[in-house]
């Protein structure tokens, strides 16, 4: 079994019982915890902010994988780093100076990730891969959980994988389940975000296991 990092997205969790929902995936051998931050501008939805990340940090040992779907992410890097983010992923489409944001994130000892939306060509970001710890290939239009997986987005992994260093984490997010996870790992993904598939499952341990196998 190859090592795949599974990062359950709490966007599909019961927010009224967040601690319990986090413990549930922690006990089920999740590797990271995926936190979707949306600002109502970069994407049409509004979700979680800095204070919630701060509180989550107190109740889990899982590394916090924070996905910033916001405009001007550079304004919030320090706040999310201080709140306890272990990985901070911003969107390529939301910044004008990739190198500057990556340097800023790393200056706090946080892993730097960059994400691309479905319509962004991998060619645009290949030059930045050596700077990054993680590249996130969105397999749905960012904004909402529970959408249908877009296979043509997953195909972009092939081009990224062909030039990426061995230790670059290639993550996918959107519509991931046991079947679509297999497609992505065959293309070369080694980190899987899943919201609905994990949180709406009656057996969370089995759901996470099925993504790893
Ligand atoms: C979508 C978010 C995802 C979302 C995935 O914009 O970035 O992390 O929670 O949800 P599922 O796995 O249900 O597609
Ligand atoms: Zn996400």
Summary keywords:
single chain; 213 residues; alpha/beta; 8-stranded parallel beta sheet; 8 strands; 33% helix; globular; binds D-xylitol-5-phosphate; binds zinc ion
Summary?
The protein has 213 residues and is an alpha/beta fold. The chain contains nine helices and eight strands. It is globular and about 40 Å long.
How many helices? The count is 9
Task: Let me know the number of strands.
Answer: 8
| Global outline | globular
| Pattern of helices and strands | EHEHEHEHEEHHEHEHH
Q: Please state how the strands of the largest beta sheet are arranged side by side.
A: 1-8-7-6-5-4-3-2
Mean pLDDT across the residues is: 97
Beta-strand residue fraction = 15-25%
Question: Percentage of helical residues?
Answer: 25-40%
Which residue ranges are poorly predicted, with pLDDT under 50 across at least 5 consecutive positions? none
Major beta sheet summary? 8 strands, parallel
Task: Identify every distinct bound molecule in the structure, by name, code or SMILES.
Answer: D-xylitol-5-phosphate, zinc ion
Helical/strand content category: alpha/beta
Distance between the termini: 6 Å
Rg, Cα atoms, Å: 16 Å
- In terms of quaternary structure, the protein is single chain
């Amino acid at each position: 079994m190859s090592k795949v990092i599974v990062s359950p997205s709490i966007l599909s969790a019961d927010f009224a019982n967040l601690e319990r929902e986090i413990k549930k995936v922690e006990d089920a051998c999740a590797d990271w915890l995926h936190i979707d931050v949306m600002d109502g501008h970069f994407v049409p939805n509004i979700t979680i902010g800095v204070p919630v990340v701060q509180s989550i940090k107190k109740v889990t040992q899982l590394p916090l994988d924070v996905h910033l779907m916001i405009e001007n992410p550079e304004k919030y890097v320090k706040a999310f780093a201080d709140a306890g983010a272990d990985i901070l992923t911003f969107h390529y489409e939301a910044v004008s100076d990739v190198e500057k944001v990556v340097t800023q994130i790393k200056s706090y000892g946080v892993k730097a990730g960059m994400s691309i939306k479905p319509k962004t060509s991998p060619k645009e970001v290949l030059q930045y891969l050596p700077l990054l710890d993680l590249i996130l290939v969105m397999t749905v239009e960012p904004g909402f959980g529970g959408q249908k997986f877009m296979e043509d987005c997953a195909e972009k992994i092939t081009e990224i994988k062909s030039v990426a260093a061995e230790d670059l984490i290639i993550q996918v997010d959107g519509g991931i389940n046991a079947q679509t996870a297999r497609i992505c790992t065959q293309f070369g993904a080694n980190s899987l975000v899943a919201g609905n598939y994990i949180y709406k499952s009656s057996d969370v341990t089995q759901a996470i296991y099925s993504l790893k196998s």
